[in-house]
């Protein structure tokens, strides 16, 4: 008799088992996202180079070590790995909903007369329950799709944090080296101005010039000296930031960074490829695409709540007075229930509309991320070209200012030029030196920004998972 309802339920469930409500996700073509066939700025648009370790192009061993050290010690990356692990467990939980749940239990009791009687009775029982939520309309399967897309998005979020951390380390390293160069310029200028002040003092004592020359020399020297503390503060800030980015105390790298080194200079240009290459390479773009896929799957999760819910279950029980007879008599029960919401004041349909709105918002966020990525590339290309032109002009200016300062200094010593001419020449020399340092720093920073905009610093051929990414140092419970 029990076989009849089971057979009937099977006949109902089988034709519906392949029914999955909600829209299927469709990847968007580049044209739908507003991606042009080429960039609007002059750039090398041949195939992209291997950008997975772009920092090695600067040929600075310490910079390379710091960037690679961050992969295992940066605390932002450690948090990203934890979020990735959480997303994996969410997928495990979603998949578990596709399978039955089994519960088992056992109990024993003893009844004993306290007065007026003898003997007693023992009761033993074993039991197991099985429950299964039939996924007739694919709501659970859509939930698994959403969880899988979220896991992939979390992997790309980890990659986004990784490449951002790499770029930030490189930028602060450049800032530290630029500050060292500016300090060297300031101290060199200060030594020259000390010499000028001494000469002006001798000439005032000799009655050759008025005290105006000496006061102008003092003012110039003090202004140069006043610039040094702010440069030192900038240097300390950059080095402290490098320490924190590598998971250490702010002062941990001061000893290693103390030796003065030039500002690292990478290649003159980088092949940027075509815009669609950037979309495949940028982890934030790929994360936005996976978030859209998850949002579309969630529409099916919400729509499945509009349809009947079929639950299947069963139980097995055994009772006996002793262990030896526990399996002598076994009873079983099988049940099925079909539930349908009749009235909920529009809540379920509102949830469907909410899911659809979330998917629309995810699509707009995806498009925005794509356009921002293209904007980043073009801005970085222009910034690099601008810094290179400025560097060339400042090199000419430095050469001219150096010659002018030498001539002015010789003329002043010989009494053939006044101090105002010497002071102006010295100021032009200081400005040209700092301008060249600034241009070279900006050029390196623009190159770093271009590598970041192109999505360099990770392996774009594979989705990062908790099993394939390094595990940065993190706390444990």
TrEMBL record:
Main site of residence? Answer: membrane
Which subcellular locations apply to this protein?
A: Cell membrane
Highest taxon above the source species: Bacteria
One annotated Gene Ontology cellular component of this protein: plasma membrane
Topological type in the membrane = Lipid-anchor
Give UniProt keywords alphabetically.
Lipoprotein, Membrane, Palmitate, Transmembrane, Transmembrane beta strand
Provide an example Pfam family for this protein: OEP
UniProt xrefs under SUPFAM superfamilies: Outer membrane efflux proteins (OEP)
The Swiss-Prot or TrEMBL record annotates one GO molecular function as: efflux transmembrane transporter activity
Sequence similarity: Belongs to the outer membrane factor (OMF) (TC 1.B.17) family.
Q: What is this protein called?
A: Efflux transporter outer membrane subunit
Q: Which organism is it from?
A: Sphingomonas tagetis
Q: What is the lineage of its organism?
A: Bacteria, Pseudomonadati, Pseudomonadota, Alphaproteobacteria, Sphingomonadales
């Amino acid at each position: 008799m029990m076989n009849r309802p089971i057979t009937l339920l099977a006949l109902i469930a089988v034709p519906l088992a392949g029914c999955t409500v909600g829209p299927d996700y469709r990847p968007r073509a580049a044209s739908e996202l507003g991606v042009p066939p080429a960039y609007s700025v002059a750039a090398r648009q041949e195939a992209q180079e291997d950008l997975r370790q772009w920092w090695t192009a600067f040929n600075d061993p310490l910079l390379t070590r710091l960037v690679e050290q961050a992969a295992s010690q940066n605390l932002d990356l450690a948090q990203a790995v934890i979020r990735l692990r959480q997303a994996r467990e969410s997928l495990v939980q979603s998949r578990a909903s596709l399978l039955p749940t089994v519960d088992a239990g056992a109990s024993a009791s003893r009844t004993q007369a306290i007065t007026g009687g003898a003997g007693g009775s023992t009761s033993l029982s074993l039991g197991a329950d099985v429950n299964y939520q039939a996924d007739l309309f694919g709501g659970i399967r859509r939930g698994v799709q959403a969880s899988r897309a979220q896991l992939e998005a979390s992997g790309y979020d980890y990659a986004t944090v990784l490449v951002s951390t790499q770029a930030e380390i490189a930028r602060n390293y450049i800032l530290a080296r630029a500050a060292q160069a500016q300090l060297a310029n300031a101290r060199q200028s200060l030594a020259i101005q000390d010499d000028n002040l001494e000469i002006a003092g001798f000439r005032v004592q000799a009655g050759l010039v008025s005290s105006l020359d000496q006061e102008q020399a003092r003012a110039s020297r003090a202004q140069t000296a006043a610039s040094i503390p702010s440069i030192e503060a900038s240097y300390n800030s950059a080095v402290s930031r490098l320490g924190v980015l590598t998971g250490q105390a702010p002062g941990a790298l001061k000893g290693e960074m103390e030796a003065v080194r030039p500002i690292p200079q990478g290649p003159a240009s980088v092949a940027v490829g075509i815009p669609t290459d950037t979309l495949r390479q940028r982890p934030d773009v790929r994360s936005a695409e996976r978030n859209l896929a998850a949002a579309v799957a969630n529409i099916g999760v919400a729509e499945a709540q509009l349809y009947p819910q079929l639950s299947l279950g069963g139980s097995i029980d055994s009772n006996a007075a002793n262990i030896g007879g526990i399996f002598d008599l076994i009873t079983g029960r099988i049940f099925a229930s079909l539930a349908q919401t009749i009235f909920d004041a529009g809540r379920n349909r509102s949830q469907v509309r909410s899911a659809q709105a979330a998917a629309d918002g995810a699509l707009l966020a995806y498009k925005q991320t794509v356009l921002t990525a293209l904007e980043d590339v073009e801005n970085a290309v222009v910034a690099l070209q601008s810094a290179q032109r400025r560097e060339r002009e400042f090199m000419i200016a430095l050469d001219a200012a150096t010659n002018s300062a030498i001539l002015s200094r010789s003329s002043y010593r010989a009494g053939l030029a006044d101090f105002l001419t010497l002071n102006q020449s010295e100021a032009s020399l200081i400005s040209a030196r700092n301008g060249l340092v600034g241009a070279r720093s900006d050029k390196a920073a623009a190159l770093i920004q271009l590598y970041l905009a192109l999505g360099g610093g990770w392996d774009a051929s594979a989705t990062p998972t908790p099993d394939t990414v390094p595990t940065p140092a993190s706390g444990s419970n």
